[in-house]
């Protein structure tokens, strides 16, 4: 994160969502208003060098920043004389959503102490033995890492793994960080970066025959990090109207498609016996254990209806759970 990146980030944010920053001029942002917002952000963070260049906003600098924004984010900011800056037919792409999310997360961590009275974050799930920064550098430089990993029951029955690996990717999910790494013996293996990591050393020796890793392709048919080799398939899920809205805005999986909307999208009571409150979505993924955990998280608001083996998979676990309370 650099001061220049942060300035461009805020320029895009202010122009694309001006009302949030108190600018209500039919979608236009005059240069004077843009400067006022950047000045206030700089003033609010006067002792923070990350914000040093927010008030460098000459017309020449802004013009150069708009070209960088177009290049980096594929977001075209236009200017109408006597009105100001605006974005025509603005749509937030997946890549841009990713930039927004990562920047906001970075700023939350950057301001963690100053904002602690206003923002509560989940505990860190990282082991004290793991430092992400050199690990990311090892991924970039394709260096070997040497690690020892003492698994729990879920790790192929308490399997212990030790050796040299090519680190490939880091992923955070459900308050835990995972490392995908590869060697000839284990292929691509997923390590949880918690107390199971007994030692991790970065070897400055480059991998002789590095493999390429595409995280989207690797995870495209899963919800989390678990890959079981099960075939991915369309899973149909009925969703109660109040939760249908939630899953419309926060999809269960990137493959999610709406099959049918609830006939009664708004009801004063939740009569789960009323067929009109149920909509239907479908997702294309492995019906594995992580899928089961995601479904159980949504309580009685969702029900898997097909395929039958996926439905039975959920039912079997619910039957076992019911046995605890009989």
Explain what you see.
With 326 residues, this protein is of the alpha+beta class. The chain has three domains: 3-110; 132-219, Roll (SH3 type barrels); 233-324, no CATH class. The strands form three sheets. It has a five-stranded antiparallel β-sheet, covered by helices on one side. It has a four-stranded antiparallel β-sheet with strand order 9-10-8-11. The model has no long low-confidence stretch (mean pLDDT 87). Helix 1 crosses helix 3 (59-73). The protein is globular and about 70 Å long. The chain has nine helices and eleven strands.
| Global Rg | 24 Å
Strand content: 15-25%
Portion of residues in helices? 25-40%
Task: Note the total helix count.
Answer: 9
Order of helices and strands: HHHEEHHEEEEEHEHEEHEH
Strand order of the largest sheet: 6-5-4-3-7
What's the number of domains?
Answer: 3
Mean of residue pLDDT values: 87
- As an assembly, this protein is single chain
Structural class: alpha+beta
Pick out the low-confidence regions.
Answer: none
Task: Characterize the main sheet.
Answer: 5 strands, antiparallel
Report the span from N to C terminus: 55 Å
According to DSSP, the number of beta strands is 11
Principal-axes geometry comes out as globular
Organism: Subsaximicrobium wynnwilliamsii
Protein name: WYL domain-containing protein
Can you lay out the helices and strands and say which pair or pack?
Blueprint: H1 3-16, H2 31-44, H3 59-73, E1 77-80, E2 84-87, H4 94-110, H5 132-141, E3 143-150, E4 160-173, E5 176-183, E6 187-192, E7 197-206, H6 215-219, E8 233-240, H7 241-249, E9 257-260, E10 278-285, H8 289-297, E11 302-306, H9 308-324
Antiparallel strand pairs: 1-2, 3-4, 3-7, 4-5, 5-6, 8-10, 8-11, 9-10
Helix pairs in contact: 1-3
């Amino acid at each position: 994160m650099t001061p220049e990146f942060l300035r461009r980030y805020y320029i895009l944010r202010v122009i694309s969502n001006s009302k949030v920053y108190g600018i209500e001029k039919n979608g236009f942002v005059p240069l004077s208003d843009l400067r006022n917002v950047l000045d206030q952000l700089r003033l609010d963070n006067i002792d923070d060098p990350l914000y040093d260049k927010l008030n460098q906003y000459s017309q020449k600098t802004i013009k150069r920043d708009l070209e960088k924004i177009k290049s980096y984010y594929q977001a075209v900011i236009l200017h109408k004389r006597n009105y100001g800056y605006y974005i025509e037919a603005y749509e937030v792409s997946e890549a841009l959503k990713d930039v927004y999310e990562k920047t906001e997360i970075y700023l939350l961590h950057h301001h963690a102490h100053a904002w602690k009275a206003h923002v509560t974050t989940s505990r860190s799930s990282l082991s004290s033995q793991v430092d992400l920064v050199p690990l990311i550098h090892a991924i970039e430089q394709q260096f070997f890492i040497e690690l020892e990993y003492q698994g729990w029951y879920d790790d192929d029955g308490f399997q212990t793994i030790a050796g040299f690996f090519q680190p490939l990717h880091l992923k955070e999910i459900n308050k835990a960080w995972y490392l995908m790494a590869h060697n000839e013996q284990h292929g691509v293996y997923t390590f949880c970066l918690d107390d199971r990591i007994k030692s991790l050393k970065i070897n400055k020796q480059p991998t002789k025959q590095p493999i390429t890793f595409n995280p989207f392709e690797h995870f495209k048919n899963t919800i989390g990090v678990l890959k079981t080799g099960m075939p991915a398939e369309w899973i149909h899920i009925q969703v109660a109207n109040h939760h249908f809205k939630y899953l419309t805005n926060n999809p269960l999986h990137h493959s999610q498609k709406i099959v049918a909307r609830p006939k009664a999208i708004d009801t004063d009571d939740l009569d789960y016996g009323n067929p009109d409150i149920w909509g239907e979505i479908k997702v294309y993924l492995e019906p594995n254990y992580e899928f089961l955990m995601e479904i159980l998280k949504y309580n009685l608001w969702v029900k898997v209806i097909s395929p039958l083996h996926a439905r039975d998979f959920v039912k079997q676990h619910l039957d076992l759970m019911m046995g605890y309370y009989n």
